[in-house]
Amino acid sequence: MQDDYQGWDAVEDSMGEYQFAEVHGIKKGDNTFVITDFGGSNDSRHVISAMMAAVKQFKCKLHVRKNASTMSLLTKLTEASMLKVAPVRGGDHEELGVLGMRATPPVAKKPWWKFW
Length: 116
Prior knowledge:
Elements: E1 9-10, E2 17-20, E3 23-28, E4 32-37, H1 44-58, E5 61-65, H2 68-79, E6 83-88, E7 95-101
Parallel strand pairs: 4-5
Antiparallel strand pairs: 1-2, 2-3, 3-4, 5-7, 6-7
């Protein structure tokens, strides 16, 4: 099975580690990809594009490791309704499973009544 290239490059020094610009991730088993670090990137658009590329390239579940660098941006994205996550049980590290993501925040709903 050959993966489609979506921007995640394999790191030469270590086996199973990938990099998408400043975002780092590892392949965990056959059906899970874990983003370990967002690097110095605080741009939500950059992180969302890395997540979408990981899902397309590896065709598996996506998890994000909970740490200081990832949690600030993850809470920002979940509050903006661009990302839905759930805690994952088991494993050595605390991780969040990504249930869904959007490239843009949802449009605010307009009230059904009008004032003339």
